[in-house]
Amino acid sequence: MARIPTEFRALAEVEIHMIALLAVLHVVSSIPTLGSLAKEVGGARVEVESLAKGYQDPHFVEPKPSLMLVLNRADLLLHVGLELEIGWLPPLVLGSRNPRIQPGELGNLDCSRAIPVLDVPTTKLDRSMGDIHPQGNPHYWLPPANARIIAREIAERLQQLDPDGQAEYQRNLAAFNKRVDAKTREWAPMTAKLKGVKVATYHKSWTYVSHWLGLEEVGYVEPKPGIPPDPQHLARLIAVMKQEGAKLLLMENFYNRSVATLVAEKAGGKLLTLPTDVGATPEIKDWFSLVESVLKALSSSV
Amino acid sequence: MKLALLLLAMALPAASQQADAGTPDDLQKELEKAIQADSAPPAQGEKAPSAPPAATSGSSGNAPQTLPRGAQSLNPDLSVILDGVFGYERRAPQFLSGDDPDLGAQGTSHALGFMVQEVELAFSAIVDPYFKGEVYLTIPNLSGIEVEEAFATTTSLPWNLQVKAGSFRGAFGRQNGQHLHLQDFTRRPLINAAFLGADGMRGPGAQVSWLAPLPFFLTLAAEAFSLRNDPADESQVQPLPVASFGADASSRPTLAAEAKAFFPISEAWSLTSGLSFASGKSPGLLLADGIPAGAGRDSQLYGVDVYLKWKPANVSLGYESLAFQAEAILRHLDGGDGIPNEWDGGAYAQVVAQFARRWFVGLRGDIVGVPSSSVLARAGRLGASLTFQASEFARVRAYLDAERASGTSALLPKAEPAWAPAAFLQLEFSMGAHGAHPY
User: Fold this and answer.
1) Across the interface, which of B211, B316, B437 has its CB nearest the CB of A88?
2) ipTM for this model
3) Helix (H, G, I), strand (E, B), or coil: what is residue A302?
4) How far is CA B168 from CA A140, B112, B225, B279, B345, in A?
């Protein structure tokens, strides 16, 4: 009789050791793309979950209490920062009762910390300018240069949290960067086609993509960030698009299409609804397929 | 199979390494001991341990680029919220919450005019690695500054625990915890002033809450308040109600407990439900002849609330959303002074529908005095609101309601006239830091 408990104990020890060996860090990201990049560098040492879905507007995520449960289990929280998630993430983090991911802790990574931020306001701010982000534009995760920075930051943080995995994280990061190099070469014909193309966008969220591809933004459907358009503004936008010869109107696939469709049509152009996050459509499974689908949609429309 | 696993584990270098270094538990204990020794008075012959690396040390080698990110400041986030109204009411409302618009109607006379329903100053900041601090000062109806809430919340307690201490709104149902600007209607539900007190159940105290480690969201909260507000001033022609549940009880604290669960039914639908309990002294009036109309009687509150919401994950198909909310309170009043043990209760239910990007319409039905008691007559109210949300930071609301005092109680005079319609146009705006939207 005495042998059975011993065997059980041995088995339990084995399981504990196996868990220790796998050292699975539970990473929770605010938006799926950050989680996807964490998976690239974390490999088998991380499991990844996202609070928002790829087809959700990351400004407005319902702060459901069930998300506190997700955060409660997290070892590392990845967020976009620059106040993108200010309307929903802080109360979830506080309510998660998870000391590891509170602001200032190792388990809380603001992924914007090393990003060269664009659209940083240069004049005195007030909200007559709309719902602006005082620290600059937070929609930075599509261009390859920024994805590399995010991946590097995540790798460094994973290393700090899990020093045993350092070699693996560095290996994965190098592999990721190599794959970005290869993909960038593969995408070159598409990106070359887009240089100097004039576009209008719905929200001012394409700045980084335009900067990367050399797109020229001639106007926005939203007169100011977060403020719905009025007819005068739209008439002006249509006129500008016609005058500038802008044939494309870019919009994230989580916005309402009705106004944008009309504007594109009246301007003699085309509305292009594009994914901006992993999981925006079921086929977009990682950062590579995300960027590729944006590039394919853009380059096939010019 | 077991043997194979055992052999595998033995062959694993990581596992054996760990055995060499002792288990992580042992290491943790050793470190804990060292930290304790560090904060204790210095002992002789001890060597200082080398400092661990800073927790948030930046990227090695690749220093983040320095960018103009706006002025860094360690000031708390500050915002100012204003609610102004223009309104009409046929007579003084029977149940006036502290942050309801008070147009000054006395007794049976009507009132018409402007009022600044509330000015709120909100400060919040992370205090240090262990606490978050929040202070909300309010000036309701331009009548002096009050501390609506001022509390610290712990951020680093173990075992899924969180402690809130200071002065705060109690965890009792849904609306009691909400500030005015989170309400979907210009006036709070009748049950607020009738059972929780004009200011709701709030005051200096402490709360411990626990997030249960379950597959679904469940929190349990227990709290104690000490409320030493003055009882109603009986020298006035129209005595003032006691401001909060539990006030006039300096001898023992008010106790409350709440369980709150959340069920994500589908991506768009979700249900929040709670059960609450509180034990303390009831609010109410202290009448001119010394009869306590509720005020100061020991009582227990039993509450239940539900919040059912439908909101699609994005707006690609439209901006519509829908929320149903209902709360009911049952109160037991202890007997004494010739008054018997009594039960009374009340409830409200509301539906708020967003029918366009910036437009919300709401309907609410209220009832109190079901059952009625010697201090609470039956009264009902029907209210409707139409809200235009100009931006995240400003809204304009039209609100209509009609209150009907249908029953009588032994101790209080019947409100006359029985029908009391009211109408308000409300402007609400918020300046400063972008607040988060609670669920």
Assistant:
1) B437
2) 0.87
3) coil
4) 39, 33, 9, 17, 24
Tell me the pLDDT of chain A (302 aa) as tens digits.
Answer: 444 455 555 545 544 444 445 658 999 999 999 999 999 999 999 999 999 999 999 999 999 999 999 999 999 999 999 999 999 999 999 999 999 999 999 999 999 999 999 999 888 888 888 888 889 999 999 999 999 999 999 999 999 999 999 999 999 999 999 999 999 999 999 999 999 999 999 999 999 999 999 999 999 999 998 888 999 999 999 999 999 999 999 999 999 888 999 999 999 999 999 999 999 999 999 999 999 999 999 999 98
Cβ distance of B129 and A53 shorter than 8 Å? no
Chain B residues in contact with A102 by the CB 8 A cut-off are 129, 155-156
Q: Which of residues 181-220 of A touch B (CB under 8 A)?
A: none
By CA distance, what is A253's nearest residue in B? B316
Selected residue of A4, A96, A97 to mutate for chain B interface (largest B Cβ count, 10 A)? A97
Cβ–Cβ contact B69 with A under 8 A: yes
CA distance B177 to chain A (A): 14
Tokens of residue A249, six digits: 């109107």
**Mean pLDDT throughout B181-190?**
95
3-state secondary structure chain B: CHHHHHHHHHHCHHHHHHHHHCCHHHHHHHHHHHHHHHHCCCCCCCCCCCCCCCCCCCCCCCCCCCCCCCCCCCCCEEEEEEEEEEEEECCCCCCCCCCCCCCCCCCCCCEEEEEEEEEEEEEEEEEECCEEEEEEEEEECCCCCEEEEEEEEECCCCCCEEEEEEEEECCCCCHHHCCHHHCCCCCCCHHHHHHHCCCCCEEEEEEEEEECCCCCEEEEEEEEECCCCCCCCCCCCCCCCCCCCCCCCCCCCEEEEEEEEEECCCCCEEEEEEEEEEEEECCCEECCCCCEEECCCEEEEEEEEEEEEECCCCCCCCCCEEEEEEEEEEEEECCECCECCEEEEEEEEEEEEEEECCEEEEEEEEEECCCCECCECCEEEEEEEEEEEEECCEEEEEEEEEEEECCCCCCCCCCCCCEEEEEEEEEEEEEECCCCCCC
Whether the Cβ atoms of residue B198 and residue B96 lie closer than 8 Å to each other: yes
- Are B103 and B92 in contact by the 8 Å Cβ rule? The answer is no
- Minimal CA separation from A189 to chain B, in Å: 31
Nearest CA distance, B10 vs chain A (angstrom): 9
> A202 CA to chain B: closest CA distance, Å?
13
Q: Chain A contact for B310, CB < 8 A?
A: no
Helix (H) or strand (E) holding A274: strand A270-274
Q: Are B283 and B249 in contact (CB under 8 A)?
A: no
> Inter-chain contact B161–A257, Cβ cutoff 8 Å?
no
Which residue among B6, B317, B318 places its CB closest to the CB of A14? B6
Nearest-CA distance B187 → chain A (Å): 25
- Contact predicate B94/B414, CB 8 Å: no
Tokens matching residue A22: 């796998």
Residues of A in contact with B157 (CB under 8 A): 97, 99
What is the CA A199 to chain-centroid distance, rounded? 22
pTM across the whole model: 0.86
**Which chain B residues touch A253 with a CB distance below 8 Å?**
316
For chain B positions 176-205, those within 8 Å of chain A (CB to CB) are: none
Chain B residue numbers touching A117 (CB-CB < 8 A): 67, 69
- Please indicate if any CB of chain A lies within 8 Å of the CB of B15: yes
Whether residues A153 and B439 touch (CB distance < 8 A) is answered with no
Among A208-217, A224-233, B52-61, B254-263, where is mean pLDDT lowest? B52-61
